[in-house]
Automatic annotation (TrEMBL):
Keywords: Cell membrane, Glycoprotein, Membrane, Peptide transport, Protein transport, Symport, Transmembrane, Transmembrane helix, Transport
Topology term for the membrane: Multi-pass membrane protein
Subcellular location: Apical cell membrane; Cell membrane; Membrane
Enzymatic reactions: glycyl-L-glutamine(out) + H(+)(out) = glycyl-L-glutamine(in) + H(+)(in); glycylglycyl-L-isoleucine(out) + H(+)(out) = glycylglycyl-L-isoleucine(in) + H(+)(in); L-alanyl-L-aspartate(out) + 2 H(+)(out) = L-alanyl-L-aspartate(in) + 2 H(+)(in); L-methionyl-L-phenylalanyl-L-methionine(out) + H(+)(out) = L-methionyl-L-phenylalanyl-L-methionine(in) + H(+)(in)
Positions of region (Disordered): 647-681
Composition bias type Basic and acidic residues, residue spans: 658-674
Transmembrane segments: 12-31, 51-72, 84-106, 118-139, 159-179, 256-274, 294-312, 333-352, 580-600, 612-636
Protein name (record): Solute carrier family 15 member 1
Entry function: Electrogenic proton-coupled amino-acid transporter that transports oligopeptides of 2 to 4 amino acids with a preference for dipeptides. Transports neutral and monovalently charged peptides with a proton to peptide stoichiometry of 1:1 or 2:1. Primarily responsible for the absorption of dietary di- and tripeptides from the small intestinal lumen. Mediates transepithelial transport of muramyl and N-formylated bacterial dipeptides contributing to recognition of pathogenic bacteria by the mucosal immune system.
GO biological process: oligopeptide transport; protein transport
InterPro entries registered for this protein in UniProt: MFS_trans_sf, POT_fam, PTR2_symporter_CS
């Protein structure tokens, strides 16, 4: 017996391995594609930021809505195994379609590197994304539930470990996703999953269960309405009004599912905060310093998951249990929400620090102006009505001057005095460039937000007497100013050239700054030494490491909330509705994403830190509501309830046991048979 038990255990580990590796590969493919999706929208389809982010969030929301479809197909029709196989094929077709849509040569007849027919590429990529959403979302509830199905009722500890390992694989897949192409991994996902085919415990679908559930609920509501008079005796539960027509077992199962779904109502709020990691927090990082921005953003969450899940499972939860505290799943989820709220408080504190260092940008009714002087002497600049600035040659005004009107007149104390009228841009920042011939002074528009991704915006004013060529820039005419170019952090070299003459100019950049470099007429004679710099925007000074606490808190929250939610959704579902409840759980994520979309569309509070605090407070309020709901929730053992109802229906426990035994024996025979077949092959 000992030998055969060990053998069974080893066999189980083996086929669980196929399932978790399958999840690893699938997440690998999904996150690998998702990581480059916004870039594809921005730089291939040439969409603007807003459209790219909206479509991205809509796609993510769709990926977490389609699980309902997958669950219906699995529980009512194909069974989980076949659903996973077929929808994985749809998934792979989606990835191929998406890949084809990125080949610009298909419509680039004139070979200029730009597609000629954007509509074709957009249509193809949208089709690809829909297929991917259908594939990834459709299989998601089935894989988790299918994994759970491999365990027997008494194996609840192993089941919990399975879900933790399953979650680890999700995150290991997402962590490594950038290294291997997504396409290969969909194919390997399928192969890994099929490889374990002969070993799995496959539960059969029980007819069109979803349709029966809807009909049963509809009947209960109608029947309750028909018997609304007080002369009819009350029933314990409103679903009991379906007793006249529907099987008691089905009614009991629906009650279990509805109880859990009701509990899910407040949960999207957690995901609303969680999913802002990828939007608001990423933007916050671009206003900070530190050279690990992209690495931090894409890897910190999965790395923390890989560390925290084992720590929680092996250390924290057992320790809490040893202290005699009952840290039930719903309590864990509540604490998870509170951690996410704390993460947002931490983000607000970081934001307050950042705000102290941010430039004072103009409001929508204001205009800001700075003056740069490349004239040969110091100038006294008067900006009507009462702004007087003294600006050295090849220098600038100390900071931007803010005006609440747009029409200004500028006078220079040259001989004769030069006066010129300008109209400033409302809500904009501009620089008045005074060239060597001040009569042609002109306005140049400046950046009015922090350069993206911690880059630096730089431009040059040519005070040299002839055209100049600067590395990577078009040639600049005398007295002209280039447009901004974005440069990365670190040391950058520029070569300035005019005919045979040249000199090299080096500059070390930080993060998120903006500079105007003034090139004097002596530039070649002093080997670029005399180039002066005007700091239009200071580099970021709050270090990105300050974001680590908020990532740590939200990931701790995720481990408590999400891993537990996954286990809870499986354990509280009746056998024939496991995928449906998994889908319901994933839908809370979709709704959370939709809320992010709506919030982004509605705009933000004037202060970002206030918005973070608002979200934190909302989640605390929601977690209080959830804890009250959880207090009234009684954990159930679906199998026990089903057995009890069966017993009440007259099916003797012995018969049931016999039935189960027969099924188990059948399963075992089937597996042995397949094992023999495989060995023969
Ligand atoms: C809604 C899911 C549980 C999301 C999950 N994401 C992560 O684990 C991210 N740390 C996924 O399945 O991708």
């Amino acid at each position: 017996t000992l030998f055969s038990n060990k053998k069974k255990k080893r066999k189980k580990i083996c086929y669980i391995f196929f399932i978790v590796v399958n999840e690893f590969c699938e997440r690998f493919s999904y996150y690998g594609m998702r990581a480059v999706l916004v870039l594809y929208f921005r730089y291939f389809l040439l969409w603007d930021d807003d459209l790219a982010t909206s479509i991205y969030h809509a796609f993510v929301a769709l990926c977490y809505l389609t699980p309902i479809l997958g669950a219906i197909i699995a529980d009512s029709w194909l069974g989980k195994f076949k659903t996973i196989i077929y929808l994985s094929i749809v998934y792979a077709i989606g990835q191929v379609t998406m890949a084809i849509s990125t080949i610009h040569d298909i419509t680039d007849a004139n070979r200029d590197g730009t597609p000629d027919n954007f509509t074709f590429h957009i249509a193809l990529s949208m089709l690809g994304l829909i297929l991917i959403a259908l594939g990834t979302g459709g299989i998601k509830p089935c894989v988790a539930a299918f994994g759970g199905d491999q365990f027997q009722e008494h194996q609840s500890r192993q089941l919990n470990t399975f879900f933790s390992v399953f979650y680890l694989c999700i995150n290991a897949g997402s962590l490594l996703s950038t290294l291997i192409t997504p396409l290969k991994s969909v194919a390997s996902t399928l192969m890994v999953f099929i490889a374990g085919s002969g070993m799995y415990v496959k539960t059969d679908p029980e007819g069109n269960i979803m349709w029966s559930v809807c009909k049963c609920i509809g009947f209960a509501i109608k029947n309750r309405f028909r018997h609304r008079s007080s002369s009819y005796p009350k029933r314990e539960h409103w679903m009991d009004w379906a007793n006249e027509k529907y099987d008691k077992l089905l009614i009991a199962q629906i009650k279990m599912v509805l109880k859990v779904l009701f509990l899910y109502i407040p949960l999207p709020m957690f995901w609303t905060l969680f999913d802002q990691k990828g939007s608001r927090w990423t933007l916050q990082a671009t206003t900070m310093s530190g050279d690990f921005v992209s690495i931090l953003i894409s890897t910190v969450n999965p790395i923390l998951i890989l560390t925290l899940v084992p720590i929680m499972d092996r250390l924290i939860f057992p320790l809490i249990q040893k202290c005699g505290l009952n840290f039930s799943p719903l309590k864990r989820m509540t604490v998870g929400m509170l951690f996410a709220a704390m993460a947002f408080v931490s983000a607000a504190l970081v934001q307050i620090e950042i705000d102290k260092t941010l430039p004072n940008f103009p409001s929508s009714s204001e205009s800001q102006l700075k003056v740069v002087n490349t004239y040969s002497t110091t100038l006294n600049v008067t900006i009507s009505p009462n702004e007087h600035l003294l600006i050295e040659s090849f220098g600038s005004s100390a900071d931007y001057v803010t005006f609440d009107h747009q029409d200004i007149t500028v006078s220079l104390n040259t001989n004769p005095v030069i006066t010129k009228a300008f109209s400033l841009i409302k809500g904009g920042r501009q620089t008045l460039i005074i060239p060597s011939d001040p009569t042609v002074m002109y306005l140049k528009e400046d950046v009015k937000s922090k350069p993206r991704e911690g880059k630096n915006a730089i431009r040059f004013v040519n005070g040299y007497t002839a055209d100049l060529n600067i590395t990577n820039l078009d040639s600049i005419e005398p007295s002209a100013t280039t447009n901004y170019t974005l440069v990365n952090q670190g040391k950058r070299d520029f070569v300035l050239r005019h005919g045979e003459q040249w000199c090299e100019f080096s500059r070390k950049f930080g993060f998120g700054a903006s500079y105007t470099f003034l090139i004097p007429s002596t530039v070649f004679s002093d080997d670029c030494e005399s180039i002066t710099e005007v700091e239009d925007m200071k580099p970021n000074s709050v270090h990105m490491a300050l974001q680590i606490p908020q990532y740590f808190l939200i990931t701790t929250g995720e481990v408590m909330f999400s891993v537990t939610g996954l286990q809870f959704s499986y354990s509280q579902a009746p056998k024939n509705m496991k995928s449906v409840l998994q889908a319901g759980w994933l839908c809370t994520n979709a709704v959370g994403n939709i809320i992010v979309l709506i919030v982004a569309e509605l705009g933000k509070l004037p202060k970002q830190w206030a918005e973070y605090l608002l979200f934190a407070s909302l989640l605390v309020a929601v977690s209080i509501i959830f804890s009250i709901m959880a207090y009234f929730y009684t954990y159930i053992d679906p199998a026990e309830i089903e057995a009890q109802v069966r017993k009440e229906q007259g099916l003797e426990p012995e018969e049931m046991e016999k039935e189960t035994l027969e099924m188990e024996e059948k399963d075992e025979d089937q597996k042995n048979e397949q094992g023999v077949k495989q060995t023969k092959i």
